Amino acid sequence: MATPQTIQVATESWLGYTNEDGSGFYFDILKHVFPEKDWTLEIDMAPFSRVRYLLNHERADMALGFYVGDKTKALYSEQAVEVDSVDVALTPEMAQIWEGVNSLSFKKVQALLAYRYDEFIDVPMYYEESSNLLEMLNRVNRGQIDAVLDYKPTMLAKAAKLAQPRQFVIIENIFQAEIYFVFAQNSKGALLKAHFDIELQKMIDSGELDRLFRQHIGPEASRL
To answer: Which Gene3D superfamilies match (predicted)?
Structure first.
């Protein structure tokens, strides 16, 4: 009996996608594509900046949740696993004048380290990144910055820990981008990608990928 092959997977923790308990849409994809009898998945949950570092230095075999155009050295899956929708927390003043992503023009905007939203939003912003989402939300809550780009469930989860009662307003789905799983740029990464591409296509063709997405994200949710 062949020994299961080990895959080092690096990912940030995202609610509904890569939950700390090992559940989530992305993790279910991995379990379908790399079943336990043939593969051993070793998951490294880390901030996205660390995930990018591990992949760049070939210390991870694959990583989850990447946009096209990311400067990380990686091989991209043939198909996107979903289309990502990014949300924004705004000061009440900003929320009143909000007319879409162009409203961020020359505003103070922050996001988590290595998310690089400024590369995907074609609007000039005073853009900064930080490792502390709660502190960024405190800043927008106090009116020290105009906006924080992240995901509504994660921001709402932090809201209970704010230094002052919540003032900021969350607006959903301000921009979208296709999300891919990526692989180390070496021979093992190339083999894993080839296997992943075949198995993911089967999941797409059978409807299983859409079913899993609705199961984890919501019955009315659309993967694409």
So the answer is: Periplasmic binding protein-like II
Examine the pLDDT at 93 and tell me if it is beyond 90. Answer: yes
Cβ burial of 69 (10 Å; 0-12, 13-18, 19+) is exposed
Tell me the per-residue pLDDT of 162-220, one tens digit each, with 9 for 90 and over: 999 999 999 999 999 899 999 999 999 999 999 999 999 999 999 999 999 999 988 88
In 3D space, the residue among 69, 167, 55 whose CA is nearest the CA of residue 121 turns out to be: 69
> For residues 166 and 164, what is the distance between their CA atoms, to the nearest angstrom?
6
Give 130: exposed, middle or buried? Use CB within 10 Å, 0-12, 13-18, 19+: middle
Count helices and strands in the chain by DSSP H and E runs: 7, 9
Whole-number Å distance between alpha carbons of 88 and 101: 9
Give the alpha-carbon dihedral of 87, 92, 93, 95, to 10 degrees.
30
Beta-bridged to residue 112, according to DSSP, are: 130
Please state the length of the chain. 224
How many CA atoms within 13 Å lie on the side-chain side of 18? Answer: 18
What are phi and psi for residue 37, nearest 5 degrees?
-65, -25
Cβ proximity of 140 and 89 under 8 Å: yes
The answer to whether 49 and 113 are in contact (CB under 8 A) is yes
* Encoded tokens for 57: 């230095």
**Per the structure block, which two tokens stand in for 173?**
């789905």
